[in-house]
Amino acid sequence: MLTAFSWTLFAACTFVPRAVVAAGQEPVGETPPPGTVTTTQAVAADPAPSDDAAGQVAPVPGGLDADAILAMTPDECRAKLDEWKIPYEVPDDPPASIDAPIRFSGPVAGVAFAIPWTAANGNDVLDCRLGVALAEWAVLLRERKVVEVRLYSFYRHGTRHGVTAARAQGQLSQHHYGLAIDARWFVLEGGEVLDVAADFVDPGTDDTCSGASDDAEASVLLDIYCAAWSSRLFHVQLSPAHNREHANHFHLDVGGANGGWYLD
Known about the structure:
Layout: H1 7-12, H2 51-54, H3 66-70, H4 74-83, E1 88-89, E2 101-104, E3 112-114, E4 126-127, H5 128-143, E5 146-153, H6 165-168, E6 180-188, E7 193-195, H7 196-199, H8 216-230, E8 236-238, E9 250-253, E10 262-263
Parallel strand pairs: 3-5, 8-10
Antiparallel strand pairs: 1-2, 2-4, 5-6, 6-7, 6-9, 8-9
Helix pairs in contact: 4-5
């Protein structure tokens, strides 16, 4: 059964993240706040669905693409999450830049989205529309035996990371609007933790999702990543193949391609 667990169990289980920063390197992406030891919405790697998850109405992967999701009003979006019985709450004091703020309060279509330390600065708050996209992705994740996604943040204040100065100047990240996720760890039913930083292998093709890998862990991660792209759930998907700033996570967002689509 998917249940929350304490730091004691957390330290004893399979989740022992490999170093976010390799020796001699500058930090890439985001790193956890120093001294934090607790987790929000983390779950044990147990293939049995929770009572909440078992009662959910499964979304249809690709039933709504990113264009349709982005066009939703807050009321339409929350109605869709309610229809799918996705557990969420409306935060009391959300970041002002998020149009339709929510916080997941349980597994989403059988997959927990967890920040594996104490969430701060609204990092666990997301726009409802990202929630819809993640709900659809969760169905694809469960098909691939994923029970939990451990992430750095949804919301994050500020401008874009990892793009040229000219492109980044004056452009706020989709994280600023709660419309992006930076996902690093994927927990499988058997307890194995796939780490994007350590296990992803760049397939070396111009189109990341047209490539393949002979490495078992890398192959699963590429499949996880490209399943979302095949269903057009996100406008922008950036893997470690993109640049150094994304070397330790998958970035997926709704609305970040200025009306288009971008994969790397």
